[in-house]
């Protein structure tokens, strides 16, 4: 690599910095700049890697062009998107709705029916948000036992008694009937994996439970389908509780929300990235979770800390068909929700 290397993608200042005062080409600096520009281009989709899993070209994620042109109407019908086939008609419909909403809002302001919009002497609009009234709430500590703390194990066992979620952790094998391990192994595996303790450490601090037994349970019982089924049992119970519904503002609507949090990762992981802002000199990933008004945490996924969470909103909304979200808090997903019918 020398002076013949392409430099047109660099700025004028960067191109000038490539040469030392003696006119020597600085190969090390060129490599660093090349890596930076390559990483940015991969994230922006300007370039793609043919054998890659994540950074493919956009065409590789779509139907082949010939297949799309020959089966367009059938594919749209199967996806329930025939109403969106004519983009001109779709835009005209949205424009009509938007114009009507603006007209209605302006008419109410002009008729002085909007209590939150006022105008100062210079004719500038002043928005007055309503004051939030504080609700007097009483402590619920009297409803529980006199204990200061409640163990996680007791919580897991109480939920098992009400939902039977442990029955969802079936063995992978469907040929032979497998004898289920004792209940303590179920709880130890859930705590070890769910609390990020680890199987080895959990086995060391647990009496009467070996690491082999825990590892066997995790490998043969804790599949993603089984975990989702167990979570569904708990979600179904929460949906039936009258106490959970007190947070629901409108019984005919279900408001959901999603947010991510950064988590440090100290082991090798495909989703872990360096980020000095969040992890200092370490690495980490983002845990992106969904919750609804009934306080049901119905979807969580782990993504790279450098990725945008907005791209995974549709995954959460479509993951659980029993939880039908009518309002989601991310405003930039309005168009996507139109296509999904929310």
TrEMBL record:
<dbReference type="InterPro" id="IPR002513">
    <property type="entry name" value="Tn3_Tnp_DDE_dom"/>
</dbReference>
<dbReference type="GO" id="GO:0004803">
    <property type="term" value="F:transposase activity"/>
</dbReference>
<dbReference type="GO" id="GO:0006313">
    <property type="term" value="P:DNA transposition"/>
</dbReference>
<feature type="domain" description="Tn3 transposase DDE">
    <location>
        <begin position="155"/>
        <end position="322"/>
    </location>
</feature>
<dbReference type="Pfam" id="PF01526">
    <property type="entry name" value="DDE_Tnp_Tn3"/>
</dbReference>
<protein>
    <submittedName>
        <fullName>Transposase</fullName>
    </submittedName>
</protein>
